[in-house]
Amino acid sequence: xxxxxxxxxxxxxxxxxxxxxxxxxxxxxxxxxxxxxxxxxxxxxxxxxxxxxxxxxxxxxxxxxxxxxxxxxxxxxxxxxxxxxxxxxxxxxxxxxxxxxxxxxxxxxxxxxxxxxxxxxxxxxxxxxxxxxxxxxxxxxxxxxxxxxxxxxxxxxxxxxxxxxxxxxxxxxxxxxxxxxxxxxxxxxxxxxxxxxxxxxxxxxxxxxxxxxxxxxxxxxxxxxxxxxxxxxxxxxxxxxxxxxxxxxxxxxxxxxxxxxxxxxxxxxxxxxxxxxxxxxxxxxxxxxxxxxxxxxxxxxxxxxxxxxxxxxxxxxxxxxxxxxxxxxxxxxxxxxxxxxxxxxxxxxxxxxxxxxxxxxxxxxxxxxxxxxxxxxxxxxxxxxxxxxxxxxxxxxxxxxxxxxxxxxxxxxxxxxxxxxxxxxxxxxxxxxxxxxxxxxxxxxxxxxxxxxxxxxxxxxxxxxxxxxxxxxxxxxxxxxxxxxxxxxxxxxxxxxxxxxxxxxxxxxxxxxxxxxxxxxxxxxxxxxxxxxxxxxxxxxxxxxxxxxxxxxxxxxxxxxxxxxxxxxxxxxxxxxxxxxxxxxxxxxxxxxxxxxxxxxxxxxxxxxxxxxxxxxxxxxxxxxxxxxxxxxxxxxxxxxxxxxxxxxxxxxxxxxxxxxxxx
Amino acid sequence: xxxxxxxxxxxxxxxxxxxxxxxxxxxxxxxxxxxxxxxxxxxxxxxxxxxxxxxxxxxxxxxxxxxxxxxxxxxxxxxxxxxxxxxxxxxxxxxxxxxxxxxxxxxxxxxxxxxxxxxxxxxxxxxxxxxxxxxxxxxxxxxxxxxxxxxxxxxxxxxxxxxxxxxxxxxxxxxxxxxxxxxxxxxxxxxxxxxxxxxxxxxxxxxxxxxxxxxxxxxxxxxxxxxxxxxxxxxxxxxxxxxxxxxxxxxxxxxxxxxxxxxxxxxxxxxxxxxxxxxxxxxxxxxxxxxxxxxxxxxxxxxxxxxxxxxxxxxxxxxxxxxxxxxxxxxxxxxxxxxxxxxxxxxxxxxxxxxxxxxxxxxxxxxxxxxxxxxxxxxxxxxxxxxxxxxxxxxxxxxxxxxxxxxxxxxxxxxxxxxxxxxxxxxxxxxxxxxxxxxxxxxxxxxxxxxxxxxxxxxxxxxxxxxxxxxxxxxxxxxxxxxxxxxxxxxxxxxxxxxxxxxxxxxxxxxxxxxxxxxxxxxxxxxxxxxxxxxxxxxxxxxxxxxxxxxxxxxxxxxxxxxxxxxxxxxxxxxxxxxxxxxxxxxxxxxxxxxxxxxxxxxxxxxxxxxxxxxxxxxxxxxxxxxxxxxxxxxxxxxxxxxxxxxxxxxxxxxxxxxxxxxx
Amino acid sequence: xxxxxxxxxxxxxxxxxxxxxxxxxxxxxxxxxxxxxxxxxxxxxxxxxxxxxxxxxxxxxxxxxxxxxxxxxxxxxxxxxxxxxxxxxxxxxxxxxxxxxxxxxxxxxxxxxxxxxxxxxxxxxxxxxxxxxxxxxxxxxxxxxxxxxxxxxxxxxxxxxxxxxxxxxxxxxxxxxxxxxxxxxxxxxxxxxxxxxxxxxxxxxxxxxxxxxxxxxxxxxxxxxxxxxxxxxxxxxxxxxxxxxxxxxxxxxxxxxxxxxxxxxxxxxxxxxxxxxxxxxxxxxxxxxxxxxxxxxxxxxxxxxxxxxxxxxxxxxxxxxxxxxxxxxxxxxxxxxxxxxxxxxxxxxxxxxxxxxxxxxxxxxxxxxxxxxxxxxxxxxxxxxxxxxxxxxxxxxxxxxxxxxxxxxxxxxxxxxxxxxxxxxxxxxxxxxxxxxxxxxxxxxxxxxxxxxxxxxxxxxxxxxxxxxxxxxxxxxxxxxxxxxxxxxxxxxxxxxxxxxxxxxxxxxxxxxxxxxxxxxxxxxxxxxxxxxxxxxxxxxxxxxxxxxxxxxxxxxxxxxxxxxxxxxxxxxxxxxxxxxxxxxxxxxxxxxxxxxxxxxxxxxxxxxxxxxxxxxxxxxxxxxxxxxxxxxxxxxxxxxxxxxxxxxxxxxxxxxxxxxxxx
Lengths: 664, 664, 664
Hints:
The structure is a homotrimer.
Chain A: E1 6-11, H1 18-31, E2 35-38, H2 43-46, H3 56-67, E3 71-75, H4 83-86, H5 115-132, E4 138-142, H6 157-171, H7 174-181, H8 208-236, E5 241-242, E6 244-245, H9 253-258, E7 264-266, H10 274-284, E8 293-298, E9 304-305, E10 308-309, H11 317-327, E11 330-335, H12 363-381, E12 383-385, E13 390-394, H13 396-404, H14 412-425, E14 430-434, E15 444-447, H15 455-466, E16 470-473, H16 493-499, E17 503-509, E18 515-518, E19 521-532, E20 538-545, E21 552-559, E22 562-567, E23 570-571, H17 573-590, E24 603-610, E25 613-620, E26 626-630, E27 634-636, E28 641-643, E29 646-650, E30 655-660
Parallel strand pairs in A: 1-2, 1-11, 2-3, 3-4, 4-5, 6-7, 7-8, 8-11, 13-14, 13-15, 15-16, 16-22
Antiparallel strand pairs in A: 9-10, 12-24, 17-19, 18-19, 18-20, 19-23, 20-21, 21-22, 24-25, 25-30, 26-29, 27-28, 27-30
Helix pairs in contact in A: 5-8, 6-7, 8-13, 11-12, 14-17, 15-16
C-alpha cells in the first residue's frame, strides 16, 4: 500500500443506477480519487433473503473501479443486519442500559455477541472474502463500521451468559471476585457467578468494579468479534485488514487493533477543534507502529444527520487537514461520502457530489486536496515520520474507568485533548502511545488520566526513568487498582512505591478555593487531586490556598539516571495552561528534546526522515498563518528553491516542505 | 350560527351540584355568556358502567341553558374513556415512542385506533347524537378534545397492523416502498409489509421516510376517527360539527377539517406572543373558508396545571384578543373555563369563577369583553372579512417533515410564526392558507418551510405566477420528495424546474460565518440553505461571506405575467428581520397590494366588507397604543362620529371601528 | 445516653482485616471517638446464605470497642438485602415511576413492602436484637439507613394491592373516594378500589388526589416497616431506637419517628448552605422533644460518590458545625465515615482515615472538633436548649402536596429553607416544629408552605392565637383540602373562616409584573398567591402593580387576645427578603419575643439553660467572624473570665460560651 498516497471516498454504488455509477467513476477520475471504501452497509444487497448470497455486484464494481485506476477497500457489512435477521427476534437485538430492546432500524441494532448474528456474520464474510479476496483492485479490508458508535454495553441475555463466562475466566472462583471487587460493601457479595448482574437499572450507582469490568468485558467481546471476522478473511485474502475506529466509542482500540493489520479511524472534528484532529494523527500512527494509518472517513465540508448539523469547513482547511495528516503518517485520506445519500438518516451530510451529481460546497476544497496530494506524494513516500522524543500515554481502558467514575462530569476525551494541546503548543513533536507501546527512543513520558496503571506499565516506565527518561505521572493517575478499587497500602499503590514520593491524601480540588504555584506561575487547581509529602524529593509545585495549602502538588525525584515527576492536580484556566506548558518546556529542556521547533500555535511542524535526511512539513491549521525558525538552511521541495536558516512564514492554511541540507 | 356573536365558556355542570349550577347560570346571564361548550370529559357520567348509558342530564342541562338564553356546543366524550374500558387492558392503551404503555389516568390514555375503543366510542356518540341531536339549544358539536395534545404517534399492536395496511394501500407492493424510501441505505430493505417497524427505540435515528410516513399515517388515522364520529352524528343531527384543534398537535388540520363543518381551535398564547394569537386567526379563518371560525378555548387570565403556570394577562389584553379575533373572522370566543376545577390536574387553571363561586382575577376582563362584543356585534354580523391579497402557505404535513429532520433543533411553529411576523409587521393584510386552498384573488404568495411541495401545489402556484402573481418560495422549501428523500434530478426537483433557477448546492449556513446582502441590508444568514446560479434570473440577494460567497441566496425570474422568487436562506437577527420585511414590502409594492395599512407594529387593522363598503377594525394588541393612517374619511361606527382621513391614534388595548365613506 | 457528649463515626469493621481493625481502634482512641455506628449494610456478612445467620462478629466487635471506651449504635441491615433475596426475583424488587424494575445492586433495590422481604427482614433483625440487644457497649439502635434516599414510591404489584387496602381503609366505599377526590373530572371515576391505578406512565399529569394520596400511602408503608422492626428490637433490647432521616427523602418524619425513641438525621450541607445545617438542628430537636437528637452522618470534609463530589469544608467549619449542633440540642456528632471505602460506589467520599490508614484532608478538623467537644461537654450536659418563643411549622406531608403540585418547579425544601433564613437572620431563636407539636410556650407561629392545613391544626393554632399568640399563615398555605382538591366554600376553607379575612382570588404572581409594599418596603411578589379583602382586618401589605393592584397580600386581624396574620404572596429578591425580615421583626416586637439577640448574620446564638441560669453558646458559622451584644455581664465558661455587657466579637469559626450572671 506504499505505492501511492491515497485520496479517496466512501462510496455506495449499490444505491445507484448504472448511469449514475458511470458518472461517479468519471468524476472520480477527474477529481483524482484513487481509492474508495465500499460495502459496509450492503448486507441486504448481498443477502436479500436469508441464505441467498450474491456478491457479484461488488466483484464487478471493484474490477471496474480498478480498470479506472481506483483501488478499493472492501468492508464487511455487519453493522446493518437485514430485516430477516431481526424481524420478530427480540432476543437477537441490542439491549441498552435502561433495558430497552432495540427495534429494527438505524444501525447496530443487533447484539454482536448473539450466536445467530455471529453465525450469519461469519457466513456473509466468508462469502465476501472468498469471492473478492483475490481481486487485484482490492487493497484492504475494513471490518464492520465504527464499532459501538451508537451503542455501548449490551444488556441482553446472551451477553449476561458471556459476562458470567468472562468473569469465571477472570476470577476462577466467586470468592476471588468478591475479594477483588470488595463486594462486601453494601452486601453485594455473590454466591455464584450466575448471580452477578449486568449494570442495568438500579436505584443508585452500581459498584465501581461491576461498572468498569462490564465495560472491559464488552470491549473484549467486540474485539473478539473483530478477531473472528479477521480470521475468516485471512483464509481467503492477503489484503491487510483494518477497522474505522475512533477514540469516542466504547472500544479498547489497542486491543481491537492487536490482531488487525493497519490502523484507521474516522474524524469529524471542526476547525476550532484542530487539536483533536492532530491528536488523532499522533495517536493512530502509534496504534500499529511502522505502518501508515488511514483516515477512512472525514467530511469534505460538514457532518450532519437528520437531527444535527455542523457547518462547512472554511476554505483551505480541508487541504490543511489532508497535508498535515499525510505528513504525520497517514497513508490515505478519505471522505465520507462521495455522493450525498438520497435517503435514510444522513441525507444532509456533506459529500463531494450532491445526490443529483453536482459539485457540493466542499468540492473545490477536494480539488485543492488532490493538488496538494500530488505536490507532496513523492516526499511523503520517500520519507517516514520521525519518532517523537516526547510521548503521552493514551488508554481506552482508562476511558472506561473514568466513565464509571467521572467525579464531576469528567470526560476522558476532553481531559486528554486538553493535556495534549499543552504539549502541542510548545512545538515539541509528540507521540500519543497506547499503554503497550515500548518506550525505546523516548526521553519524556507523560501519563495523565490513567486511574489504573498496570504493574507491567509501571515497571516499563520505571525502567525508562532508570535509563535516563523523565516520567511525568498524573493527574488522576495510579489511584485505582485493576479492579477499580482503592489501594489499601498507600494512596497510589505500586506507582507510589516506585516513585518514592508519599501521597498524603487525595481530595477534590476546585478552581475557586485552591491555587498552586509552580514555575513562577500561580494558577487555580482542580480535579480529583493528590498532595504529596516532599520529604523524599523536590517540590516543584506547592498548594497555596485551600485545605491542602503548603503541601506539594508537583514533585520530582531522581530515579536511576532519570526522574519520576508526580503531578497531583490539574492546573486550570489560562494560568493553568501556562503552568502546564511551562512544565512541558522545563522537562523538555532537561531531557534535551531536539525533535521540536518554535512554531507558532495554530501551525504545526511534522518532521519526517528519508534517505536525504530530515524534512519538515509545515502546515498552518488555524487559517491565520504562522511561522517557525528553520534551524539551518534547507530546500523547499515543492519549489526547489533554497531557504535560509531563520524565520519562515506560512500563509493561511499554507503548507511548506523543507528538506534540511545538513541534517542526517 | 350567524344570528349572533358568541361569547362563551367551557362548562362542566356534571361536576357540580344543583345549587352551584343555578348560581352558574345566573352569573352567566349577568356576564352575558351566550354559549357554553359541554361534555367532552363526561364519558363516565354518561356511561358509568359499560353499556349503561344515560345522557339525560345533558339533555336537561342544554334545555335549561337554552331557556336561560344560553346555547350549547355539545362534545363527544372520547378523550377520556372510563376505567371499565382500560382497566386490565394494556392492549387498548396508547404506547409511546419509548414503548411505554400508558396506564389509566390523565387523558388520551387509550389508543384511538383500538377497535374496541372505536366500537365503544361509536356507541356513546350514537347515544348522545340520538338523544341530543335535535335539541333547540344545541348549535354545534365538538368532536373529542384537542386530538393528540398529550400524545403523538401510538406504537401499539393495533397501530402496527393498521400501519401495514396503510403502507400496503399506499405502495401496493413492498418493492415500491423499498424504492420510494431508498431502504437499501443501511440494509433496511423489507421483504414484506409486515416487517416494516414502527419507529420505536433504536440505537440511532430512524430512516427519514419511516419517521415521516409514520407521522402521516398517524395523522390520517386520527382524522379517520373524526370522520367516523362525524358520520354518526350526522345521522341524528343537523348541527354543524367542529373540533378544537391547534397547530401544536400531531394532527394534519387541513385533513382533519375536510369532513367537518367549521373550524375551531384553542389558544393560550401570552400577550408577548400576540403574533401567535393573530397567526391562528389568519390561519383558521382559511381552514373552512367562508365560515366563521371559533376560538373554543382561551384563558380569561392564565393557563396552568399542577406542574406549570403562565401569568395573568395584563388588564385589557383579553378584550383586545376578543375584538381582534371577532374582526378577523371568529364567530365565537370561549373561555376555558367557566368555573375553576375543584379537582384533577388543572385545579390552578385560570377561570371566570373560582371553585367557590367568586369572581377571579380575570373576571373584570371578561366583563370588558362582553361590553366590547355588544359594541361590535352589529358591524361584525353585517360584514365579512376581506380576503387578503397576500397569502402564506401553512402545512401540518411540513411540520411532520421538520419533526423528522429538524437539522439543528428547528421547530416548525417557531419558524412559521417568525416569518408570519415579518408580514404582519409590514401592515399587509394576510391569509395563512393550507396547501389545498385555491389561490384565486391573491397577488403574493409566500411558501416558506415546506420541505416537500406536491406536484399539485407546484402546478397551482406556477399557474398563479403565470397569471401575474408573485410566488416567493423558501427557505427550506421543495428540497425533499413526497417520501422524504433527496431529489436526484436537481436540488429542488420539480420546483427547481418550474422556477427555472438552478440550485448550485445546499448546506447549513450559520449566523456567524455567513452573511448576505439584499435590499441594501447586510444580515447574517442561517438555516439549511440553498444557493443559486444567477444565470437565468435576477439576483436580489448575494451571499457575502462564508463558503458560498458570491452566489445568490435570493433570486427572481419572470414566470408568465408574474414571477417566482427563490429565497434560499433565512436572514436572521434584527438585520435579517429588516431584510425579510424589506422583501415583503418590495414585492407587495410590485404586486400593488392594496389591502394594507401603515399601522404601527403592535396594533392591527382587520379589514371587513359589507353592504356599506369597507370597515376597518383597529385594535391595539401590545398595550402601548399605536396609530394608523386612514386613507380617506370615515365614520366611527361605535360613536357615530366622523373621522377625517389621516393619522388615527388608538390607546392601549383600545379598538376602533371605522366605516369608510367612499370605499366600496 | 446523657452521660457524655458523643463524637463518633460510621464504621464498617466487617470490610477490613484484623490488623486494620486494631489500627482503627487505636486511632479512634487517639482522636477521641467515643461512639461508632455499625452494621447497616452488613446483611450479607450476617446471613451469607439464606437462613444461615451468624452475627457473632458484631457481638465481638461491640464488646471490643466497648473495652476500648467506644460505645456502639447498632443498625439493622435492611437497606441492602443480599443477592439470594433478589436474584431471579423481579417481583421482590422496587419498581419506579417509569415502571422500571430495579436490578440487584446499589441500595434499596428491594420493595420494602414485599412480604418475603418483610419476613426475611424480621428474621435478621430478630437475630441481631436477640444476640446483641443486651451488650453493655450497645447504646442505641438505628433502623435501616436513610429510608427512601434513592427511591420514592414503589409501583410493584405488592404495593398495588397494599394501595387498594390503604384506600379501602381510608374511604370504606369507592363512592367516598370518588366524591373526595372529585374523580368525575376527566371521567376518572372508579367502580371498585381494585381499579385505582398507581401513578405510573400516563400521557399527561395524574389527578392531584391520586398523586398525593399515593405519596401519603407510601410514607405510611415505610413507617409501618419501621414500626414492625422497632417492635422486634424491643422484645430483646432496652436500648433506644432511631433512624437516620432527612428532610430530603420521601418520608413523613413526624410519622416515622412517632414510634421511635430519639431523632437522628444525616446532613451533608456545604458551608454556603449553613442555614440548611442550622435548620436541621432547629427541626430535629423538636421531632422528639426533650431528648437530644443525633447527627448520625456528616462528612468530616466533603461528600462524594463515583459521579458527584462536593469540595472540602474550609478549615474550622467542621468545628463550628459540631459546636453549633451540640449547643442546639445534639447529643451526638458522627462522621460518615471513619475509613474511606476501598470499593463500591462511594470510594471517593470524605472520611477520617484514608483507605490506607492515613489522615485525610479532614483529619485536623476532626481533632479540632474533639478539642471543642471536650471544651463544652460539661456545660452542654448540665444545660438544656431553651425553648424558642417563635416557631415555624414544618410538614413532610406538605412536601408531598408540593411534589404533586409544584406550580412552576417549586421545591418544598428550598421554600422552607429560604423562609427559615429570614427568621434566622433576625437573631430570633426559633423552633421548626412538625404539625403535631403542641404550641405551649410559643408567642409567634409561622406556617408557610402547607397547602393542606388539618382541622386539628387550625383549631390548635386558633386557640394559640386566642390565648395571645400571633399566627402568621402563608404563603401557599391552606388552599387545598385533605384530598388535594380546591375548597368550594371559600378560597382557604376552614383557615379562611377561622382567620375571618376573605380571600378574593388566587393566581400566580410573577416577580416582573407584581410588586407589593409593606413595612415601607416595595418588593416583587411571586408564587401562587392569594389576595384578600381588607374589610374585616388591617392591611399591612398592598399589591402595588399587576392584576391585583390595590388588594391586600398581607393582613392581620385580632383573634382573641392574639392575632392571625395572613400572608398571601411571597416577597422575593433582596427587597423581598428585607420585607420578610421586617415582618418577622415587627411581630417579634409585638409578641415581645425575648429569646433573641442582635447577633450578626453568619453567627448564631444558641441559648441554653441550666441550674446556673442562662448560657449562650455563640458560634461563627461563615468563617468571617461576627459579634453580638451581651445584654448583661457574664462569665466565659471556657476561660472562666468575666465578660462585660456589651459587644462581644467572635473570630472566624470561633465559639464562645457565656454564662450570664443574673439570668435565671
